[in-house]
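User: Just a sanity check before I run the rest of the batch. Below are the structure tokens for the first item. I only need the designed sequence back.
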């Protein structure tokens, strides 16, 4: 049996109207998915984004001991399946977004980004 945290399941299955959302916020959500699921999620949400959409992302970065410990904790407490961080940036670009601003903390282990539709 595959277990996902409840938010992850909803993100993959909830209905989204095409072209309707001006602001998308995914704080510590993208790093809950393995490569294929993350690609599916980003494609779904990109279709739902308006032509002027902005997408705010916060997530962990890197593959050091701290990130490994965090993944272990979430795997034990929530059933999180993924064991490594997947880089979402190429997928965002492929779906028409460009990185406008990025900030980091915790020595680069925590990243926040603002993505906008490339047409802006």
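Assistant: Here's the designed sequence for the first item:
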């Amino acid at each position: 049996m595959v277990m996902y945290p409840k938010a992850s399941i909803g993100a993959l299955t909830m209905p989204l109207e095409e072209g309707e959302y001006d602001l998308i916020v995914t704080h510590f959500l993208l790093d809950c998915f393995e490569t294929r699921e993350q690609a599916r999620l980003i494609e779904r949400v990109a279709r739902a984004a308006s032509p002027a959409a902005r997408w705010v992302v916060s997530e962990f970065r890197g593959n050091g001991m701290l990130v490994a410990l965090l993944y272990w904790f979430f795997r034990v407490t929530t059933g999180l399946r993924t064991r490594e961080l997947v880089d979402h940036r190429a997928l965002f670009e492929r779906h028409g977004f460009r990185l406008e601003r990025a900030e980091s903390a915790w020595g680069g282990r925590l990243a926040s980004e603002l993505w906008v539709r490339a047409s802006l």
